[in-house]
Specification:
There is one protein chain. By secondary structure, this protein is an all-alpha fold. It has three domains: 21-155, no CATH class; 158-285 and 308-365, Ferritin, CATH 1.20.1260; 380-413 and 427-489. It is 74% helix and 0% strand. It has nine helices and no strands. The two termini are 50 Å apart.
């Protein structure tokens, strides 16, 4: 079965003819023609012969009395032969015509003439002619009216088919647009999910960097610029994640709306296609088609039949609702693209600031570590110098012991081995006492310098330990910030990857 896709402008039904055949209009109505014929027949009969005397039935009808009962029998009059005429009343009263030896008279001559006149009456033939004329005229008018009605209904069906086809095209366009929008929104939804998955990487990188920096020595656990930027990065990642989650919820809701609109428009498109095919089939039918049948009850409206205004409103509203859902979805896709791009740009900029802060921290730490190492080298040199000084002081003190022994031995010899008069307080003896005193003072001074040197040496050793600890701390900080955090942050996604591309 072929589907009508275009409508011929030429009408297939023949044009109504006004001069021949079934389409010729009669000058008189059948009633007027029948009345004229009866008048003509009555006039002709009145001129041809006189009217017969009224019958007994007509006389009864003229008196207004009922034609039954024996009281009316005396009104019977004998005929020309002296006998009573046979009338229809005779059948009722039991009266019979007179009988003679030659014949039996059942009817009178007037009745016989009346009977012949009734038999020869052309009224039935005239009526048959009238009926024949009326029937043919009615058939011609009926076929003309039916053909005209079919032509008008065919035009109405064509117009309805055009309207259905127009709305079918609109619905198909809307269906195609909403289908493409559903596909586009699904692509954007997958892109958003991809961006949410990619967002786990900068979050884990920031968290890993913060965890690594928490492993620094206590002296380096400071809230420096890198620490602040990492915390800002974590907060920004959380903010972007919340925005993406909210946007994903909106997309899920819009996807449900789009699918519902798509289902409705597809249902309407299917209905329009079926209705258009139905109208096409109706237009292809004619009185000679093999598929036409009697359909009892086809004139009744269906259970779900709606007025034409509602159909127009339903078609328009369905297309408008579908277009509104598509436009809202397109706006959401546009805002989604802006959200992803802006979020990715913000994260990338914050990552650059964090990298710069880490690089600055690494540079400061590296410079400080070099200064500490230089100070450690100086401290070690001073420790070595102090060791030499302490050794020299001890050696000097030891040398002072020999001088002290010499002076004290000389004094002891002078005190113990000089005789009575020779033991005097002369200059040599006083000089030896002064020498012992000077030696004692010198040794005391040297011992004080030795103690000071040893104390300074201890301080230098403590400082050495502190410097070595600080250097180890700075080296560990450098290892964390420069090597480990740098290696981890080298895997930070780009702005395009954060945008879901």
């Amino acid at each position: 079965m072929t589907t009508l896709t275009s409508f011929p402008e030429n009408d297939k039904c023949p044009k109504v003819c006004t001069d021949i055949g079934a389409f010729k209009k009669a000058s008189k109505t059948p009633e007027q023609a029948e009345k004229e014929i009866k008048n003509a027949e009555e006039t002709k009969a009145a001129v041809a012969e006189p009217s017969p005397p009224p019958t007994f039935q007509e006389s009864l009808e003229g008196t207004g009395l009922p034609p039954t009962g024996e009281e009316y029998l005396p009104n019977l009059k004998p005929g020309t032969d002296g006998k009573v005429d046979w009338t229809p009343l005779g059948d009722m009263t039991g009266t019979r015509p007179g009988v003679n030896k030659y014949s039996i008279s059942r009817y009178s001559l007037n009745e016989w003439r009346k009977h012949n006149q009734n038999v020869l009456d052309p009224e039935v033939i005239t009526e048959s002619n009238i009926i024949d004329y009326n029937a043919k005229t009615s058939m011609m008018q009926a076929f003309g009216n039916i053909d005209k009605q079919q032509s008008e209904n065919t035009k109405r069906l064509k117009q309805k088919a055009r309207d259905i086809f127009r709305w079918k095209v609109e619905v198909e366009k809307a269906c195609k647009a909403i289908t493409e929008e559903v596909e586009y929104l699904e692509i954007e939804r997958q892109r958003l999910k991809g961006a949410s998955r990619v967002l786990m990487l900068p979050e884990s990188i920031s968290k890993e960097c913060l965890d690594l920096r928490s492993n620094r020595f206590q002296s380096d656990l400071v809230a420096d610029l890198a620490e602040q930027e990492l915390i800002k990065e974590m907060n920004l990642v959380s903010e972007v994640r919340a925005t993406l989650k909210n946007t994903l919820n909106q997309i899920e809701e819009q996807m449900a709306i789009n699918k519902a609109a798509k289902h409705r428009i597809e249902y309407d498109c299917c209905d329009k296609a079926m209705a258009y095919n139905t109208e096409s089939i109706n237009l292809s039918l004619n009185t000679k088609s093999n598929t036409i049948l009697f359909k009892p009850g086809s004139t009744r409206f269906g259970d779900y039949t709606a007025p034409l205004e509602y159909w127009e409103y339903f078609c328009r509203e369905n297309v408008q609702n579908c277009e509104a859902a598509r436009q809202k979805s397109a706006d959401l896709r546009g805002s989604l693209n802006a959200i992803l791009v802006n979020g990715g740009r913000k994260l990338r900029n914050q990552a650059d600031r964090t990298d710069m802060a880490l690089a600055e921290t690494v540079a400061i730490t590296q410079e400080l570590c070099m200064k500490l190492e230089e100070t450690l080298r100086n401290t070690l040199q001073r420790i070595a110098d102090m060791e030499v000084l302490i050794d020299n002081l001890k050696d000097s003190i030891r040398k002072m012991d020999s001088a002290m022994k010499l002076a004290q031995t000389r004094l002891d010899n002078r005190n113990n081995w000089r005789p009575h008069g020779e033991s005097v307080r002369d200059q040599p003896h006083l000089g030896l006492i002064e020498e012992v005193k000077k030696i004692h003072e010198t040794v005391t001074s040297l011992l004080g310098q030795l103690r000071n040197a040893e104390r300074v040496r201890e301080d230098l050793l403590k400082k050495r330990i502190v410097l070595e600890k600080d250097i180890a701390s700075k080296r560990k900080t450098l290892n964390i910030d420069r090597d480990r955090c740098g290696m981890i942050r080298s895997h930070y996604p780009s702005a395009s990857e954060l945008a879901g591309y």
